[in-house]
UniProtKB/TrEMBL annotation:
<dbReference type="GO" id="GO:0005524">
    <property type="term" value="F:ATP binding"/>
</dbReference>
<dbReference type="InterPro" id="IPR011703">
    <property type="entry name" value="ATPase_AAA-3"/>
</dbReference>
<protein>
    <submittedName>
        <fullName>MoxR-like ATPase</fullName>
        <ecNumber>3.6.3.-</ecNumber>
    </submittedName>
</protein>
<keyword id="KW-0378">Hydrolase</keyword>
<keyword id="KW-0547">Nucleotide-binding</keyword>
<dbReference type="Pfam" id="PF07726">
    <property type="entry name" value="AAA_3"/>
</dbReference>
<comment type="similarity">
    <text>Belongs to the MoxR family.</text>
</comment>
<dbReference type="InterPro" id="IPR027417">
    <property type="entry name" value="P-loop_NTPase"/>
</dbReference>
<feature type="domain" description="ChlI/MoxR AAA lid">
    <location>
        <begin position="264"/>
        <end position="328"/>
    </location>
</feature>
<dbReference type="InterPro" id="IPR050764">
    <property type="entry name" value="CbbQ/NirQ/NorQ/GpvN"/>
</dbReference>
<dbReference type="Pfam" id="PF17863">
    <property type="entry name" value="AAA_lid_2"/>
</dbReference>
<feature type="domain" description="ATPase AAA-3">
    <location>
        <begin position="56"/>
        <end position="189"/>
    </location>
</feature>
<dbReference type="GO" id="GO:0016887">
    <property type="term" value="F:ATP hydrolysis activity"/>
</dbReference>
<keyword id="KW-0067">ATP-binding</keyword>
<dbReference type="InterPro" id="IPR041628">
    <property type="entry name" value="ChlI/MoxR_AAA_lid"/>
</dbReference>
Length: 334
């Protein structure tokens, strides 16, 4: 298997040693998260993959499935400065970004001072993001894409790393506003959170209703996550994996194929291909492998593509779903 996107000056031995260390540290982080979050192993893995890839994640599920607790736990375990914003219909953009206030000095002179909003954090939890108005939702767009905000014509850099983990209630719930396609595309992955299995829910009952509740502890030191994000970008990717990504993403666009392409109203752009290139490497690193495989592409196809696609009215009238279309597309590359 030929290897693509590998710099000539890369020290293979150094990458192997760094990857082994990173894998051990991420295993320790997953174990620590598992002491607090029960029955959501796939959700935890995909969230860690999102952060290792340097992106933002959208957690979708009904209330009460520990989405907020997961984000709080991640901030502690990964050693990140984290903050939380509860999105409500009356939330304003300045409540997120910050605002300039006029101050008067003792000599009577007046100056404007910028007061930073809660977005100035390494890990921002946007809780129930789709309960805010579209105007407030759009306030996150520049920050998520460019890692800085502009207030009163002045640019303010956000901390590094900067990640948004947003929770979203299902759109059929009352009081929700659908996220615009442009903002959805800024999320590296949509991570669906489902009800736990019976045994996992039994463990939740036993572990969380007693006198003592487990509290997570920090595993990673500040700066470690940034080093691992750099390492992810240096891992080699085989040509077969690159071709699988291209085949999958291009097949998810309207008019590309005679089959499922006719059911797709609009599909993923090159940003989806970039997301898969990063996330498959991050997943391989978490599992202790030095290079991704086509299986990683198949495993991450749904969370990377589903929020970047929409079906035609005719397809939806026939009972087809985005998940169903993605399953058929995955079967073509598996």
């Amino acid at each position: 298997m030929s290897v693509m996107n590998k710099p000539d000056d890369v020290d293979d031995a150094a990458i192997v040693a760094a990857a082994e260390t990173a894998a051990e540290r991420m295993v320790a982080a997953r174990e620590e998260i598992g002491r607090v979050i029960f029955g959501q192993e796939a959700v935890v893995e995909r969230t860690l993959v999102t952060l290792l890839s340097g992106g933002h994640g959208l957690l979708v599920g009904v209330p009460g499935l520990a989405k907020t607790r997961l984000v709080n736990t991640l901030g502690t375990v990964l050693g990140l400065d984290s903050r939380r914003i509860q999105f409500t219909p009356d939330l304003m953009p300045s409540d997120i970004l910050g605002a300039e206030v006029l101050e008067q000095a003792a000599d009577g002179s007046r100056t404007f001072r910028f007061i930073r909003g809660p977005i100035f954090a390494q890990l921002l939890m946007a809780d129930e993001i789709n309960r805010a108005s579209p105007r407030t939702q759009s306030a996150l767009l520049q920050a998520m894409q460019e890692s800085h905000v502009t207030v009163a014509g002045q640019s303010h850099e956000l901390p590094h790393p900067f990640h948004v983990l947003a929770t979203q209630n299902p759109l059929e719930h009352e009081g929700t506003y659908p996220l615009p396609e442009a903002q959805l595309d800024r999320f590296l992955m949509q991570i669906d959170v489902f009800y736990p299995e019976r045994e996992a829910e039994r463990q939740i009952l036993l572990e969380t209703t007693g006198a003592d509740d487990a509290n997570p502890e920090a595993v990673l030191q500040p700066g470690e996550l940034v080093d691992y994000q750099t390492l992810v970008r240096r891992l080699p990717v085989g040509e077969s994996v690159v071709e699988a990504i291209l085949d999958l993403v291009r097949a998810a666009r309207p008019g590309e194929l005679d089959g499922e392409g006719g059911d797709i109203a609009w599909g993923p752009g090159p940003r989806a291909s970039q997301a898969l290139m990063l996330t498959v490497r991050a997943r391989a690193l978490i599992e202790g492998r030095l290079a991704p495989s086509v299986d990683d592409v198949v495993a991450l196809a749904e969370p990377v593509l589903q929020h970047r696609m929409a079906l035609t009215f005719a397809a939806r009238a026939d009972g087809k779903t985005v998940r169903g279309v993605i399953e058929k597309l995955k079967a073509q590359i598996a």
